[in-house]
Amino acid sequence: MKLERNIPVFALLLIMTLSFFSCDERKEPPQQSSTHEILNADISFSDMSRQIGMKKAFLQYIDNEGVLLRPGHLPLVGAEAIDFLSQLSDTAYTLTWQPMKAEISKSGDLGFTYGVYTLSIKDSVYKGTYVSIWKKQNDGSWKFVLDSGNEGIHN
User: Fold this and answer.
1) Distance between CA 132 and CA 129 in Å, rounded?
2) pTM above the 0.85 mark?
3) Residue 67: pLDDT band by 50, 70, 90 thresholds?
4) 155 falls in which pLDDT band (50, 70, 90)?
5) CB within 8 Å of 108: residues ≥ 6 apart
6) Could you report the per-residue pLDDT of 24-60, keeping only the tens digit for each?
7) DSSP secondary structure string, 12-72?
């Protein structure tokens, strides 16, 4: 008799346990960003630099707390970086770049790109390398939180 009374309780526990595991298996992984998003952001950033100037492009794509690593300067952070960019004159040159690789964190909100930049001044062309670390904004867009470049070769 005691066994018969425990069967419904056992069955209920078994059903609840199976339901728990089957619900868990159906959960979708959190939405992650594609590396294509960050590559496209970097390419659009370069296109904007070519079309309307490096200064406007950098001011558009820098995060409010973005950091610039530039030769002859300690790290320029946030408002200091924005002030530095605002004071630049970019009328005598064109700066463009091409990302070679991008990676995004598992959480989908941070990533990096690196590649080769081209700086054209009159009849001279300089090439170098760069790296940018990107952060996904609340609106889904990407802005860089750190940008650095290294001089390369002169053609």
Assistant:
1) 10
2) no
3) very high
4) low
5) 30, 31, 32, 33, 136
6) 444 444 445 789 999 999 999 999 999 999 999 999 9
7) HHHHHHHHHHHHHHHPPPPP---HHHHHHHHHHHHHHHHHH-HHHHHHHHEEEEEEEE-TT
Tokens of 51: 């079309």
User: DSSP string covering 78-93, please?
Assistant: THHHHHHHHT---TTE
Q: Return the structure tokens found at 56.
A: 């406007």
- What's the rounded mean pLDDT across residues 89-95? 95
Per-residue DSSP letter, 1: -
CB atoms within 10 A of CB 45: 25
Name residue 82's amino acid: I
**Ramachandran class of 4: left when φ > 0, alpha when ψ lies in -120 to 50, beta otherwise:** alpha
In DSSP terms, 133 is beta-bridged to 112, 146
CATH of domain 35-154: 3.10.450.50
CA distance 79 to 94: 24
Task: State how far the alpha carbon of 12 is from the alpha carbons of 9, 15, 18, in Å.
Answer: 5, 5, 10
